[in-house]
Design goal:
three-stranded antiparallel sheet; 2 domains; two-stranded antiparallel ribbon
Length: 189
């Protein structure tokens, strides 16, 4: 005897189909192991996707999230690649549309590093060096270093910047770097 648990659901062809507890294993197998969608299972049972969703919820068959359903083997494009012709077409359609300020990811043309330094995106040049070059009216040499007087590497006001060389710059940081009771530098501080 088949015990009805979900009642009658309208079939796709107008007939009523009764989903019952004996269909649970088959639905679970189709959904969880064969990775069929609720819509595909609905077509097999001649019921709507909503009827399958209701049945699964009532019987504790956990539905996939959207992100689970669209990644990996569940994604219809999984394992496939665009042809060169398609890539070129997509590229030509997007030419000039998503570049620089037009890009939804535009952040003003600067990258902020975790250590506080700010870099200009178009040439990967440090902003503190750009500011000092503007102030001096010339390009900096590779042997010239910029010291942030307040040790705040994101504060690039010219009043906070000091032109120095590598040796002097290291000496400046040694003065402020914390030490333990024996006078040894504390790593990571």
């Amino acid at each position: 005897m088949r015990a009805l648990v979900t009642g009658k659901h309208p079939g796709l062809n107008g007939n009523n189909y009764k989903l019952d507890i004996t269909d649970k294993k088959k639905i679970q197998h189709l959904y969880c192991e064969q990775l069929k969608s609720q819509t595909e299972i609905g077509k097999i049972f001649d019921v709507t996707q909503g009827a399958i969703g209701y049945f699964m919820k009532k019987h504790g068959i956990k539905a996939r999230t959207i992100s689970e359903a669209e990644t990996g083997k569940l994604n219809p494009f999984y394992g496939k690649k665009h042809t060169k012709k398609t890539k070129d077409l997509i590229s030509s359609k997007n030419k000039g549309k998503l570049v620089g300020e037009k890009s939804p990811h535009w952040k003003g043309g600067f990258k902020h590093r975790p250590d506080g330094y700010i870099i200009r995106s178009n040439d990967n040049k440090y902003v503190h060096r750009i500011e000092m070059e503007k102030y001096l009216g010339r390009e900096l040499k590779s042997t010239e270093f910029i010291h942030h007087k307040d040790n705040n590497t994101s504060n690039n006001n010219i009043e906070n910047l000091e032109l120095t060389n590598n040796s002097e710059h290291r000496k400046e940081h040694v003065k402020t770097q914390p030490r333990n009771v024996r006078g040894e530098f504390i790593c990571g501080a």
